[in-house]
Structures are given as C-alpha cells and as structure tokens.
Specification:
three-stranded antiparallel beta sheet, 11 strands, Alpha-Beta Plaits, alpha+beta, Molybdopterin biosynthesis moea protein, domain 2, 244 residues
Length: 244
Amino acid sequence: LRKTLKGEVEFVCVKNNIAQRALETLDIPGLKEISVDLKEQLIFIFTNMSPFKLNVLLGKNKVMMGARSGDIASIDILVPAKNTGIAPGPMLTEFKEAGIPTKIDQGTIWIAKDTTPAKKGEAINEKLASLLGKLDIKPVEAGISLYSAVEEGLKYTAEEMIVDVEKTRDTFAQFHQEAVSLSIEAGYITADNISQILGKASQSARSVSIEAGFMTDETKEQILQKADAQAKAVAGQSKDYTPA
C-alpha cells in the first residue's frame, strides 16, 4: 500500500497520548475535534488528496485473508460443495462441528452441499478458522479504513466518507440523459445534442413538407405514394356510391 500511494500519502504511527497533545496544541481548524477519537491505536495519514478519493483508493487496496480465532467475518462464508481431496479421519469431526455436511467418495471427503457456517459480522471460532484455512477460504478483509478525517477545517466521519462509485456514476449518467432530453425538447443546441436536434428538425420539416404536398428530392416519393393512396380511396368510394 505504501508503494501504491508513494508520493501522495504519508503514513505516520505514533502513540495516542503524544498524538492527542499534538492535535490539541496545533492551531489548525478541525484537529481538536478528532482528538476525541483517539481510543485505539491508529495510523495517521497525511495527504493533499480529498478524504473521499483516499477512502475509495484504500478500499480498492484491501485484500482477503485467512481467519484467526475471534476474527469477524467480512462476508457470508460460503463453503462450496466439492471434493476436498482430504482423506477421511479426524477431519470428519471438524466438518461436523462446523455444521458442514460431508460424504466419503473415492477415498476422500466430499462436501455434500453448499454451506454457510458463518455470516457477515459473526465471530469465527478457533475450530472453524482452522478448517477454513485447510480449505483455502479467506473470509476476512484486511486493509486500512478511514476512521475520521479533516479537510479545510471540516471533520468527516467514516460513514460520511463512503462513496458508492457505481451508484454515483449511474446517477450522473441518468442526470446527463435527462438534461440532454430536456435540451432537445427545448431546441437548445449543445455539443451533446446537436445531431439529435438536427435529426428531429429534419424529420419535422419532412413531415410538414409531405403534409403540405411540397415536393423535394427527399419527399417526392412519399407524397406520390400518399396521393396515389388517396386517389385509390376516392375511386373506391365512387365505385361503391349509389345515388339516393
């Protein structure tokens, strides 16, 4: 992570009591507010990057790791049905204690069906952690998470710095499409809508020309077809007409 963000971010580890004295001494807006958050051992990050961008970058650089006893599952732990390649023996007891159904086939232990021994947010006990390690299942997300941040005197909490990139992108795309549609309807020309506006104007002019019977190279075929259809309709009515 240090290599990835080298030149953009500076990581500093310092004892909380020293950090608290420094934060309370420095006359920088917002720093005193985060001094109350120093309840656990934290890493200080210094950067010119916005907290939101930094939070996204840190999130992208998180990795999944094997579980240790007491770890909290970062995801719903799925143990898929498969051949484990493990020979029958004491391991059968470990699977049973974890609530994972098994069967013996071709001299190895098979997991009988997809099973979720622990859900997101639940603690992983020692036996399950050991079993997951043997199955090469990594259910714990590791990395740096922003706890709080200060930018231009404003303090942000962890919840306030969460950015749903996909949702934000979709929202902007929707707003852009709505703006383009509105500008087309209003006839307000921009680089994004000029082709649609010209196409709409051309179609409107063609329709008016056909309705008025004004022939051009583009409309004469449709005007003649319309006139022919009208003539046939009149002829049909005349043929069926019976004087009163």
